[in-house]
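Escalated from tier 1: 2-acetamido-2-deoxy-beta-D-glucopyranose holo job.
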Amino acid sequence: MRQLRALLCLCLLAQVALASRVRTRRELAPGLYEHGVYDAGGAYCQRGDVCCHGRDDGCTVPYQDTLCYCDLFCNRTISDCCPDFWEYCLGIPAPFPKAPGCARAGHTYPTGATYRENCNLCTCGPGGQWQCEDHACLMDGELIDAVNRGNYGWRAANYSQFWGMTLEDGIRYRLGTFRPSPTVMNMNEMQMNMDSNEVLPRHFDAAAKWPGMIHEPLDQGNCAGSWAFSTAAVASDRISIHSMGHMTPALSPQNLLSCDTRNQRGCSGGRLDGAWWYLRRRGVVTDECYPFTSQQSQPAAQPCMMHSRSTGRGKRQATARCPNAQTHANEIYQSTPAYRLSSSEKEIMKELMENGPVQAILEVHEDFFMYKSGIYRHTPVAEGKGPKHQKHGTHSVKITGWGEEQLPDGQTQKYWTAANSWGTAWGEGGYFRIARGVNECEVETFVVGVWGRVSMEDMPHK
Ligand SMILES: *[C@@H]1O[C@H](CO)[C@@H](O)[C@H](O)[C@H]1NC(C)=O
Ligand SMILES: *[C@@H]1O[C@H](CO)[C@@H](O)[C@H](O)[C@H]1NC(C)=O
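Tier 2 regenerated the structure:
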């Protein structure tokens, strides 16, 4: 008797162990009802003619892109049962209400099921109809086709990093420069001694004139902080150029985002004059020292992790370690006051050629996100789709050169080359070209230059 009991116990234990192992494995399988997508009306056990009246781990049939079970072990709490298991195998109604369901791609989905169509969420309504949101999407196949068919001088592409975002989100998270206030707009323009007959080259590329000193386009991710990115980008190049390559720091946008907080809003936008004020008065460290960590839009601003103190004559020194253990070099880089250039095409060109890349604001419209190559001009392709599809916001970029191209009709198309901050997979290796001399998207409205604060001490002694 005792022996029998022991044996029974052992068996039970073994069975419990087996059950828990199997159960764990099955629970780890992708939940069939995850995301609320399941086929309420499908015939699975029935189609495969499978019903297992015990526990059978192999008792499965294909279910969409995974498997579902037709054995007694299946259970709504595990939710890996085929939807027709109860009715077909047990002859009882399924333990969940049968919804009228919505049809999609040969399946029926219950009320409340959802799927995404680009930037819009579609929900199966109580009446058995899909109800989809109606946002304008950042990537829109119709607009991409319209640009590419339209002979506008540039090509559009579908970017996976933008797919699924609404146009509003694109404007909200991918730009991030406040329009300069009227006082800043009226800032004195640099007077340039320029002979109106002066002949400038037809092509200019800062990277060719200053090899090794022009930094790669940056990637702001979904941080609406182009104010910090374009400022860091222009300052990095100019400090490199003005130090004649003795210092080639890639400056830290994160330092500006987190520490330049006076009237600035970090990854929710900021002002260029404020950024330049900070670079002059406080200075920033390199990107290696203070890396970018705000890629995803975060609810809370990140605290400032770098501080500095004056060492006299306007120069400063860091009083904090780099906020990452790998880098120790925490030199502070500063600039002189930034200056505004006139909107004259030639003056901008001359400044660029003599002193290096300049910063410019850019009014970004819906079609710009899809830019792939060529000479950009804002197109009317979204006009037919209504006002919701036409949105714009202010951005800032780094202009690095210019050129011109002969069009098939014999006309010459002049352009600027500029670095964006949407990564190097966007546009022409992170750069774009845009029509020059016509203030396209306000690119010539507010152009800024600056001198790196480079003193003799920064130069190596001979
Ligand atoms: C599913 O599991 C619950 C709790 O474990 C149980 O009460 C219920 O009877 C099971 N249903 C089926 C259909 O096996
Ligand atoms: C765009 O790309 C996404 C994924 O990267 C893809 O799912 C979608 O079908 C593409 N759309 C068009 C219109 O090419």
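The two ends are 100 Å apart (CA to CA).
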